[in-house]
Amino acid sequence: MGDRRSLPVPDGLEGERLDAALARLFGFSRTRAAELITSGEVLLDGSVPAKSDRVHAGAWLDVTIPPPPAAPMPVAEPAPGMTIIYEDDDIVVVSKPIGVAAHPTVGWTGPTVLGGLLATGHRVATSGAAERQGIVHRLDANTTGAMVVAKSEHAYSRLKRAFKERTVDKRYHALVQGHMDPLRGTIDAPIDRHPSGDGRFAVVAGGKESVTHYDTVEAFRAASLLDIKLETGRTHQIRVHLSALRHPCVGDFLYGADPTLAARLGVARQWLHAASLAFEHPATGEWMSFTSDYPADLAHALEIVNAES
């Protein structure tokens, strides 16, 4: 059963297309609004409208918003290429390969870190939402590198708090187009979903506080290798911040990367790697640091860009 809303069209939306008006009223994407109209979930003055119909102030809208689909439950299935960096009774640190998501989500049918751990007989904490048990932070499906998963309930609560309080040292390496100016600095710009609703994120006024520190490790002719420390952990944060400065990660086509450069370097995804992760062990309090080597595609691209310089 969906959430039913009934309201008059406000004066400020006079003459707008129906799909655009719904998007503005409810914060949907235009695509989502059009889907609701097409599926008969919207009535305009009691009649079934078209998405291109113009609305008039005072006209009555009845909108039924279906509940969001439930995230799929984790299934024990292999995560090809995932390796264990460290494991004890409380935590397991993995090196996540390309094409593996952290946990099941709506629309993702590929392998997951959680499924891969379950498939190899690892126990994970049962705290948190069922589809992401033990997951205390995430990497994008096509971002590789070090990631920690909680095995005990105690570790889950302590690590969740550590990530929230920003006491975890998360270091990434990114190969970006061009040269940063200045060579080192801090990007402090709020992030939220892109207004287009197409799955991208963007620097948006009023978005969530997002802080990225970067330092140039090496500048090549066409690109720069950066060492990045994340203070906050927003979805796509590094990719969004670098793209906003017109220095997207090489191969990051979602955020404006040059396909010609990516093809020359043999990169089919964003050149972004979670190189190291350090935190207080949730049981012993010992400061522990873990590193993850570059996978083959990123290492190969680095060799080419270095040889060209």
Automatic annotation (TrEMBL):
Active-site residues per Swiss-Prot or TrEMBL entry: 140
Domain RNA-binding S4 span(s) in chain numbering: 16-59
Record InterPro entries: PsdUridine_synth_cat_dom_sf, PsdUridine_synth_RluA-like_CS, PsdUridine_synth_RluC/D, PsdUridine_synth_RsuA/RluA, RluA_PseudoU_synthase, S4_RNA-bd, S4_RNA-bd_sf
GO MF annotation, one: rRNA pseudouridine synthase activity
Gene3D superfamilies in UniProt: Pseudouridine synthase, RNA-binding S4 domain
Alphabetized CDD domains for the sequence: PseudoU_synth_RluA_like, S4
Pfam families found in the cross-reference section: PseudoU_synth_2, S4
Coiled coil: none
Keywords, sorted A to Z: Isomerase, RNA-binding
Family, per entry: Belongs to the pseudouridine synthase RluA family.
Record protein name field: Pseudouridine synthase
Protein species of origin: Sphaerimonospora thailandensis
